[in-house]
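User: Please run a holo structure prediction.
Assistant: Happy to. Please share the sequence and the ligand.
User: Here you go; the ligand is tetrahydrodeoxyuridine.
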Amino acid sequence: MMSDQPKIQTTEAKLIEGAKQAMAKAYAPYSNYPVGALVVTQDGQTFVGCNVENASYPEGHCAETAAIAAMVMAGQQRIQSIYIMSQDEQGATPCGGCRQRIREFADNDTPVFLCSPKGVQKRLQLSDLLPHAFGPEFLI
Ligand code: THU
């Protein structure tokens, strides 16, 4: 069991690094608030996204939205966990729209890791962020 520990830490460190690299690509000249998101799919693949703003402020895209789009484009539709990286020492919490977008491809107990460059600051589950969620199971 002990020998598993470094491997798990390395994996999480890599995921955090991936989210950090995604944040470095953010286009956020208006808010100056770069964000990176990394989703891990159930088969262990990872997809990243960053926020992309534009001069018409409400039309910008969040990092989570971009990562989910990349996942879906690759043919994956189940999120096992998601890492959200910002410069905020507390870890940024996803906006309402992104909570619903995550919910579409995740479960109520899917872990959501709010990260700063120093590492994971908060480990939540999706239902903490979106209790009593309306999800695809209501319709399908
Ligand atoms: N933003 C994200 O990309 N993800 C979050 O979880 C919180 C907010 C972006 C939207 C906007 O480009 C900037 O951060 C400031 O709101």
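The chain has one domain: 5-127.
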